[in-house]
Amino acid sequence: MSETDFTQTDTDEPTAETDAAAESETTAGETDERVREEWRDYEFAGEAKLSVEDLDVHYGDDHALKGVSMDIPEESVTALIGPSGCGKSTYLRCLNRMNDRIEAARIDGSVQLDGEEIYQDGVDLVELRKRVGMVFQAPNPFPKSIRDNISYGPRKHGDLDTGLVARLLGRDDTDDELELVQQSLQQAALWDEVKDRLDDNALGLSGGQQQRLCIARCLAVGPDVILMDEPASALDPVATSKIEDLIEELAEDYTVVVVTHSMQQAARISDQTAVFLTGGELVEYDDTDKIFENPESQRVEDYITGKFG
Ligand SMILES: Nc1ncnc2c1ncn2[C@@H]1O[C@H](COP(=O)(O)OP(=O)(O)OP(=O)(O)O)[C@@H](O)[C@H]1O
Ligand SMILES: [Mg+2]
């Protein structure tokens, strides 16, 4: 960690402009620093895949996310870090409208995917969730064969026709199905381990294999964005490192947004890191090196060095 002079943030008088947007609630153990707009105004070359503007989420009276604005660059890994309860999962779920399923949740603000508002009437949520896929903390394969886990989504969406009816109608996609299964499993670095047991039940795989299967299942429907909520926290170090390698590879073709509690993991795999702190605010967002070597916020410094959280 570098020897930055953090006293500067304490002595600087906030300007009127930063003052209005920057008042932040604090909790015991944290400093009473004010968040400055420029700490989270991350500028990057290239296109924003997702553009989030003034996002607020309430669960009943509980204000879980406060005015988050954040552009996410395409074909890269964005890590979301912060202490438990600071709103990381809430934020992630806003990116493909999974919070719509939570009755108590109220979402205000804007999220654009490739410049198109996803919170507008008429958005096809099935199509949206195909483009913005999600991988959860606990691997959750269907209790079906490995093959069916992959082909279930495309079959459901009508992209693959197999089975008796399809054969009778002369539009049998069994070959396409095998190709898709193989390609998705290869992309998820699982093919070699399962190619001889595609018809075995997926629940017979190890935890790490199951998680890669879930990633393959997500890839099979052809997403642009992959959201991952602590995808390796239930796995051992070897399985974790496979997932980490995979995430880095996926970022060549996909936009990956990953929540993690592991600082080392965020530092290893991400291009940029967003730090959320207690109270549901985005405090700092920048290149991962900058966040870990020379953060602007004292609270971010304290959090990543393990002083709280
Ligand atoms: N379905 C829900 N109903 C009501 N409140 C919720 C719901 N989901 C989350 N919350 C609340 O919103 C806040 C943020 O929760 P969230 O799960 O987004 O945090 P998190 O940063 O992902 O935490 P963790 O690191 O523990 O997973 C918390 O106060 C939580 O209690
Ligand atoms: Mg969470």
From TrEMBL:
Keyword Phosphoprotein: no
Span of domain ABC transporter: 50-304
Region Disordered, residue ranges: 1-36
Keyword rRNA-binding: no
InterPro entries: AAA+_ATPase (IPR003593), ABC_transporter-like_ATP-bd (IPR003439), ABC_transporter-like_CS (IPR017871), P-loop_NTPase (IPR027417), PstB-like (IPR005670)
Cellular component aspect of the GO annotation: membrane
GO molecular function: ATP binding; ATP hydrolysis activity; phosphate transmembrane transporter activity
Composition bias, Acidic residues: 10-22
Keywords: ATP-binding, Cell membrane, Membrane, Nucleotide-binding, Transport
A biological process from GO: phosphate ion transmembrane transport
SUPFAM superfamilies: P-loop containing nucleoside triphosphate hydrolases
Protein name: Phosphate ABC transporter ATP-binding protein
Organism: Halosimplex litoreum
